[in-house]
Amino acid sequence: MNKEWILKEEKIPRALLKLSLPAIVGILISAIYNVVDTLFVGMLNDTRAIGAIAVSYPLFMLIAALGQMIGVGGGSMISRFLGAQDKKSADITFNLSIGLGIILSAAATIFGVVYLEQILKVVGATPTILPYAKTYTLIIILGTFFTVINMVLNNTIRAEGNSKYSMCAIGLGAVLNIILDPIFIFVLNFGIKGAAIATVIAQFISTLFLLKYYFSKSSLLNLSFKKFLFKKSIFYSILIVGLPSFSRQVLVSVSMAVYNNALEVYGDTAIAAGGIAMRVVSIIMFTLFGFAQGFQPLVAYNYGRENYSRIIEAFRVSLIWVTIYSIVLNLMYIIFSDEIIKIFSLDAEVIKLGRLNLYSLNIFFFTFGVTTTVTTLYQSLGRGRDSFILASCRNGFFFIPLVYILNYKFGLGGIIASHAVADLLAGLFTLYYIVKIKKEIKKATRHCIQTGIN
């Protein structure tokens, strides 16, 4: 089946499934293998090692955010250019995205290596956790190039409607990481260092698999640095459209760092419990990101074709699906909270604090899926300012200030409750943007009908 046909003609529910399921499966596997790192490190029976994984996670998210910014920005532009039948601009965007990925990953690697210890202290590493965190994070930072380029290529492949290949690439990396983790951690006795080595090797192999797609000429796009052309308008569009994704992930990283710092005074156990809970909930979060990655090319392509009725139907179906999915998973996490935490640690205090974290993280988390979908819609339409505000609202406007305010007022319980309050406020904030964009799309649809478009 022609990849463009799915974007252009397929019934919306089927198109969303075909585009989103591979992305969801791939990113879910990716989220699971992040959790698996914690699981295998937890088998070392060392709370400091689990804490090291917790404080390093914001840095891994920050690295991924660079790739996501370029990939989402470039991918959205590519989908729109393909929808408008502008193949030349799509190729320019693709090659420019790769170039940006190389430059930013090199800069991030140098900065991360030089300032590693200072960064880890900022994100909440205690004196007892710091040596473990340095060992693990240094290797992750040295693999920045593969993480960033992996993100970029996954997004550009999805942009042309080939979500299945992207899923296979992510799945390959995840399976390799799960296989290599116990080998490097236990068989070769590398401990926490082994978990990081396994992650980087898996990312490397996955990146090679993605590059194979372009070198085998299966793509609608041409990878060729001979054709590399710096076009200022496209460069700025990539950054403007991708900035909300970058902002969202950076704020996730910053919020985790703020959270860990606030928990530092309550000890390594509090940090470990919070880290476990957030890793587990990241499975829901990344699944919703996966759905958004399938939703994005469908909207962007049809925006290029000025098919607004197709856009609004995709938006309606997406909101219903993500809300139902989130509520079901949130209830499961709340009901089985103790059993979930016990998978990672049998420490009684970790279980208790982990349970409270899961309660707070899940009670209003269904709003996260709604906000993510609305943010993606604005991104796909090229509305950088609005999507940036939406992407920033949960963590930037609400969660980070709430951690400080509620910690001052209520101590540890207040810090943990910050998750629930931030989710509720972000959901209410998003309602305004839902009403706003629906009115605009309906107005554009009426205009298209009057002028005879579509």
Automatic annotation (TrEMBL):
The protein's name: Multidrug export protein MepA
Q: Where are the transmembrane segments?
A: 21-43, 49-71, 92-116, 136-153, 165-188, 194-215, 235-259, 271-292, 313-336, 356-378, 387-406, 412-435
Compartments reported by the entry: Cell membrane
- Which family is annotated? Belongs to the multi antimicrobial extrusion (MATE) (TC 2.A.66.1) family. MepA subfamily.
Recite the lineage of the species: Bacteria, Fusobacteriati, Fusobacteriota, Fusobacteriia, Fusobacteriales
Top-rank taxon: Bacteria
Source organism (scientific name): Psychrilyobacter piezotolerans
The cross-references to Pfam families, in alphabetical order and at most eight, read: MatE (PF01554)
Keyword terms, alphabetized: Antibiotic resistance, Cell membrane, Membrane, Transmembrane, Transmembrane helix, Transport
List the NCBIfam families. matE (TIGR00797)
For this protein, the record's InterPro entries field holds: MATE_fam (IPR002528), MATE_MepA-like (IPR045070), MATE_MepA_subfamily (IPR051327), MdtK-like (IPR048279)
Which topology term describes how it sits in the membrane?
A: Multi-pass membrane protein
The yes or no answer to whether the keyword Chaperone is present is no
